[in-house]
């Protein structure tokens, strides 16, 4: 259960208009030129960040900013991308840099998900949301911490069986209390190779005053939150905020994709039994301090009698875990093939 939220909406991250009026001299429509290069362009108009990617290479850019980041490693100065009248334009110098980068051999082709950290919410003295219902004629008390743990253990065993070469980790495997800071420390201390990344999946259940509120949903980190994902490693200090927001953009892109895949996986398994409330965004503590793509799954509302009856059923929770597992599997396949990950360098 999280605190009550204001209405949020999904950023139209993948939308760029191709309807240009006047193209500035030395510039080309970004969507059209990406298509000509056979590359993909991701653009968040609200944050003003984007990524141009192909062949496992990527250029991170900001509108109006002449510094671009190549493969999250090298900086280059080009004529800055322009976002005007809802149209994104790339300069000829940026497109030339993209062509050069995309034609080089990608030495990072073996980039992979090295670890998945599953975080069952609450535990021990912190039960999370609690509710009491009559299920099958019996008065039953339901606690969020138990539902989260049961689902997390199922997910852990499914992932462990399928990915013996990856670290499949749990922040807790028993009914113990962990502070949010302890969860962040666990997340940030996962040991990885240079070519490996970690995904963080937190599992919770919801509660509401409105007993009719029901359904499952998946959250990702709001792109509005500025994290420091790059440390100062000899880079010009003035550039750090720019670089950080470029890195953050990539984590957000990945987090949205993970959320989307997990939601699809859950929908296939349990969509006929429980309401699908969709993908949401928020700034929540554990994820905003964990430097990795991260999602939070809310399994359902324990204050809703129909949801509660399902969440109290171990077979239903197993199906839910299978849905999350299938979603993560689809994401892993997608990203290990495209090397779309930020990495930990
Ligand atoms: Zn919770």
Q: H/E series, N to C?
A: EHEEEEEEEHEEEHEHEEHEHEHH
Radius of gyration from CA coordinates: 22 Å
Considering DSSP H and I runs of 4 or more, what fraction of the residues is helical? Answer: 25-40%
Let me know the number of strands.
16
Q: Report the sheet-strand fraction.
A: 25-35%
| Count of separate DSSP helical elements | 8
Shape: elongated
Instruction: Note poorly predicted spans.
Output: 2-20, 223-233, 340-345
Tell me the number of structural domains. Answer: 2
- Nearest-integer average pLDDT: 81
For CATH, the homologous superfamily of the largest domain is named as Zn-dependent exopeptidases
What is the strand arrangement across the widest sheet?
12-9-13-16-14-15
Q: Name the CATH architecture of the largest domain.
A: 3-Layer(aba) Sandwich
Could you explain how this protein is built, in words?
With 345 residues, the chain is of the alpha/beta class. The chain folds into two domains: 27-103, Copper amine oxidase-like, N-terminal domain (Copper Amine Oxidase, Chain A, domain 1); 112-338, Zn-dependent exopeptidases (Aminopeptidase, 3-Layer(aba) Sandwich), CATH 3.40.630.40. It is built from eight helices and 16 strands. It has helices spanning 30-36, 92-103, 144-162, 180-188, 240-270, 285-289, 305-311, 314-338; strands at 27-29, 40-44, 49-54, 57-62, 67-70, 74-77, 82-84, 87-91, 112-120, 130-135, 138-143, 167-170, 196-206, 216-221, 276-282, 294-301. The strands form four sheets. It has a six-stranded mixed sheet with strand order 12-9-13-16-14-15. A five-stranded antiparallel sheet has the order 2-3-4-5-6, with helices on both faces. A hairpin with a 3-residue loop joins β5 (67-70) and β6. α3 (144-162) packs across α8 and α5 crosses α8. The protein is elongated and about 75 Å long. Residues 2-20, 223-233 and 340-345 have low confidence and may be disordered. It binds zinc ion. Zinc ion binds at residues 1, 121-122, 128, 144, 204. Zinc ion (ZN) binds at residues 1, 121-122, 128, 144, 204.
């Amino acid at each position: 259960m999280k605190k009550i939220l204001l209405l949020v909406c999904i950023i139209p991250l993948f939308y760029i208009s191709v309807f240009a009026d006047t193209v500035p001299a030395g510039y080309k429509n970004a969507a059209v030129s990406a298509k000509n290069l056979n590359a993909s362009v991701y653009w968040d108009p609200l944050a003003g960040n984007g990524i141009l990617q192909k062949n496992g290479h990527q250029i991170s850019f900001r509108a109006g900013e002449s510094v671009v980041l190549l493969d999250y490693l090298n900086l280059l100065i080009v004529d800055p991308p322009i976002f005007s009248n809802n149209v994104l334009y790339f300069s000829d110098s940026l497109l030339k840099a993209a062509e050069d980068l995309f034609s080089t051999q990608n030495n990072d082709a073996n980039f992979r998900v090295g670890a998945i950290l599953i975080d069952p919410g609450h535990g021990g003295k912190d039960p999370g949301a609690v509710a009491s219902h009559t299920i099958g004629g019996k008065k039953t008390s339901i606690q969020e911490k138990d539902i989260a743990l049961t689902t997390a253990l199922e997910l852990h065993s499914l992932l462990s069986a399928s990915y013996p070469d990856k670290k499949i980790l749990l922040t807790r495997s028993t009914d113990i209390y962990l502070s949010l800071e302890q969860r962040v420390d666990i997340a940030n201390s996962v040991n990885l190779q240079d070519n490996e990344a970690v995904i963080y999946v937190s599992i919770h259940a919801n509660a509401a005053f409105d007993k009719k509120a029901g359904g499952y949903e998946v959250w990702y980190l709001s792109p509005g939150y500025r994290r420091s994902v790059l440390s100062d490693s000899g880079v010009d200090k003035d550039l750090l905020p720019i670089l950080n927001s470029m890195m953050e953009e990539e984590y957000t892109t990945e987090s949205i994709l993970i959320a989307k895949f997990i939601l699809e996986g859950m929908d296939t398994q349990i969509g006929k039994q429980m309401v699908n409330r969709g993908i949401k965004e928020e700034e929540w503590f554990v994820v905003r301090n964990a430097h990795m793509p991260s999602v939070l799954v809310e399994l359902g509302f324990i204050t809703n009698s129909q949801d509660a009856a399902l969440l109290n059923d171990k077979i239903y929770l197993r199906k839910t875990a299978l849905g999350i597992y299938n979603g993560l599997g689809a994401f892993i396949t997608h990203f290990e093939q495209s090397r779309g990950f930020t990495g930990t360098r």
